[in-house]
Amino acid sequence: MTYQNYSLKQLQEIDAAHHLHPFTDHKDLRDAGSRMITRAEGPFVYDSEGKQILDGMAGLWCVNVGYGRNELAEAAYAQMKELPYYNSFFKCTTPTPVLLARKLAEIAPANMNQVFYGSSGSEANDTALRLVRHYWALEGKPQKNRIISRNWAYHGSTITGTSLGGMSAMHGQLNGAVPNIVHVMPPYAFELANPGESDHDFGVRAAKAVEDAILEAGADNVAAFIGEPVMGAGGVKIAPDSYWPEIQRICRKHDVLLMLDEVITGYGRTGEWFAAQTLGIEADTITTAKALTSGYQPLSALLVGDRIASTLVEKGGEFYHGYTYSGHPVACAVALANLDIIEKEGLIDRVRDETGPYLARALAERLAGHGIVGEVRSIGLMAAIEIVKDKASRERFENGGLAAATVRDHAIAGGMMMRAVGDTMILSPPLIWTKETIDMACERIGKALDLAERDLRK
Ligand code: PXG
After folding, report:
1. Tens digit of pLDDT for each residue in 233-242?
2. Residue range of the domain that includes 264
3. How many structural domains is the chain composed of?
4. Contact 86, 94 (CB under 8 A)
5. Ligand 1: which atom is nearest the Cα of residue 153?
6. Residues with C-beta less than 6 Å from any ligand 1 atom
7. Quick one: 193 and 328 in the same domain?
8. pLDDT digit string, tens, across residues 170-200
9. Contacts of the segment 170-178: beta carbons below 8 A, 24+ positions apart
């Protein structure tokens, strides 16, 4: 590649002339010009001007083993030379997706033994929706097809992903969602708990919203509930402890399948391979992608529980669904090498026993007391910082979203890559972060909060 021959300005001009970015206001982008990230190593990314930035988002919630891993490049290279592509249709397949499927069954919750591949989380959720409805059709209940989801959920950006998701701005541009998907309140205590309501009671109430939706539709018409164990793109919304056990009980009581979307939480983020294990949830499908390859290759795996899989096998009949790149051998080779690194380096144990608790303490002791911080919360290496104008009343700054965007801009300028969702700052770093990296991050975030407070209170 010869991009080094171009100046930043030239690349920005070419970008503006030819490249439409995801989730972007293109008028804005043309005014500002894009930030060009050109290389990365370990926990850092570097922009075209050589500026080093600590990557608090693991790319986009995916680079769990950090950057610059030769093993992954070599796995891809070796597989490309031997067999760059062959399909898994028409009773064929290739060795790497087979071996990866066995590995995934080994690390997944006990009832998950089958895998369906795609190239993205959105595709995997499309598969999940189709599979769950297919399951009920095979069981002789085709009308049991409604899906309960939640406001603020993010399940991808295809029409299915957007329809399953609960992002109102995205729905506003949908012009017709996939039918029979309803959304209820999320378990977001910081904004939705009533004054004086305990976390426990709020969690039970948020779960009851799911049961109410089931009862309203009639359980015979409800196929499944879908949820992220921890809502990621919606702002790292962590449910109270009472929520998931209630959801599990409600789904069992009404014979409603439980679909987990672990595109963000999968592969170690919460201190177990899957958040289902951290939170003790028994699901019928688990959507995974992102950190399956640490983002080095596009790959998703829908983990399918025994209940659905056995019906599929016993009843037979073709499931008319699949992608050219389902089980892509190169992506699967990279995934195998990636899971190997996670295991050999003990990254998940480190999150559970060391860095996860250390991050929680650091946020609580060093940032929670800040004048514009309303709450900090985390699970494993996934965290949120709520930005408020008034700590006691939790009143937000005017112009919703501007406050966190101000913090974010100062953070990036200070060498700390973070995301802002509304007025929530979020962190989801590579699992290779150490206590020292967390110290560095907290220091940089603290400075960004100081500078933002100065701007915001002007
Ligand atoms: N489910 C969840 C829970 C996700 O977080 C998807 C599905 C879709 O995956 P693909 O691979 O189709 O993008 C995601 C993706 C953000 C952001 O701004 C988050 C995602 C994607 C893009 C931006 O936080 N998550």
Report:
1. 999 999 999 9
2. 71-344
3. 2
4. yes
5. 3
6. 60, 120-122, 125, 154-156, 161, 228, 232-233, 261, 263-264, 289, 419
7. yes
8. 999 999 999 999 999 999 999 999 999 999 9
9. 178/129
